[in-house]
Amino acid sequence: MLSKDEAETLLETIAVEVAYALPDKQKIISLQVLPGTTARQAVRDSNIISVFPEIDVDTATLGIFSHTLGTKGMPSAEEYVLKPMDRVEIYRPLIADPKEVRKQRAAKAREDRAAEKAQQKAGQ
Length: 124
What we know:
Elements: H1 4-11, E1 14-21, E2 26-33, H2 39-46, E3 61-64, E4 67-68, E5 87-91, H3 98-123
Parallel strand pairs: 1-5
Antiparallel strand pairs: 1-2, 3-4, 3-5
């Protein structure tokens, strides 16, 4: 049973989640935070680094429901004040630049088509 102080504190908090995922492992941590808590502070409070020690909490890119904080008019992770039921997502750094990957894929497709054409021509 909760004490009166614990119950009052719980009534003054809001429920949020902190999420992180790897290809083979993911974790969503539900926690209660005080109103005015920022996204970055919620990540610290969640202690998610006990599960994923590779996360650099101070520099990790964060988002709220797939909206990256600090981009497209969104406040930074240090400025975004959480609302009840917000999910703070911790994003992994990109391994490769998506534009470069598309260019490489298009170049390979061109090469494959040219090789196929040459093979068809040689077979005639």
